[in-house]
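Worked example

This section walks through a single chain of length 400. The input is the sequence exactly as stored; nothing has been trimmed or padded.
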Amino acid sequence: MILSTKKLRQRVEAILPEITELRRSIHREPELSGEEHGTARKVQDLLAGYPISLRKDVYGTGMIADIRGPGEKRIAFRGDMDALPIHEATGLPYASRTPGVMHACGHDYHTAILAGTAMVLSSLDEDLPGPMRFLFQPSEEDNPRGGARGMIEAGALEGVSALFGLHLWPDLSSGSIESRPGALMAASDHVTLTLRGLGSHAAKPHLGIDAVLTAAHVATAIQTLISRRISPFDPAVLTFGRVEGGSRYNVVADRVILDGTCRTFSAEVRNFMEREIDNLASSVARGLGGTCETLYRRGYPSLQNSEELYRKVRSCLDSPDLPEELQFLESPEPSMIAEDFAYYAEQVPSLFFWLGCRPHGADPATYPPLHSAHFVPHEEVLRQGILFNCFLATSLGIPG
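Given that input, the structure is written out below as tokens.
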């Protein structure tokens, strides 16, 4: 390690008050995907006094911040800035002042942690192993486009040999960090089935074709794709979260819409589900006298961590130099939640980490999850996230 853990911790502590205020200010004034102008200005103001080259207005509101260092290759860190269309119910003194908009996914933390990482690393000078880059990304929640693709098209990955990102994770307690090689998060696709039948009086169902009954059979049959036609060692999830149809209680419905999401890890299973959902739904509908129109829209791909980079990083994280307030464990299983960080990982060796944010002693069964109006991460995560990023930057060197 180039810099001692003690000195690194001191530098983090010195900026923590500013970072805490930044995070609270961003939380107070959240902005939706593509609208993160105020959030970007707050970061720009904070970094203005540091030796950081800042490129603004990348893919709209994004920013690319660079720190000089020896060599041509650089490592990079990414943080996302957008909030969600959720009305906050936390009661915090710095709760959202924008009705119906809230940082319920921790992106206010991600942005503040990234800014703090840039502040600390930019002050190290000769202690840096190489140049560093920080990607302040908009529109992570804008599936399927995603701000990551816009950042990539704007040159965010030029000269980058390794990229790191993290996400607050309420399944883990504060101080715990998890990741794994290979699949970490799922591809997320949007599936809409429009089932059509023939309307009739409810008392004479034989004169109609019941789209509700057809939809029920289709929704049940489609689950057999996962339980009987895909290996249990290559998981998939298909969930219909919205059902719409019918006009009146005593009329046989002539149309029902099933709207949902399909989550997969492998390209083979993803292709299979896209093809066979249509085949099976159409066959079942025809067998009952109706029709089915399938609209399958691909969203974010599966997030695949670099196995080679993971091995290199794991040796650093297993070191006794890892700050004692951090504990790294290999995650036993991936998550079906999706992330547009996956687009970066398709281009350069990348690692994504889950950063525990549940206060110690909080019941994991009742602690509010991501995208909850009651989501309140432990603020200690700010210190831990910055410390973790800086430890990686100063311990790993520049791969590639």
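What to look for: Residues 5-28 form the longest helix (24 residues).
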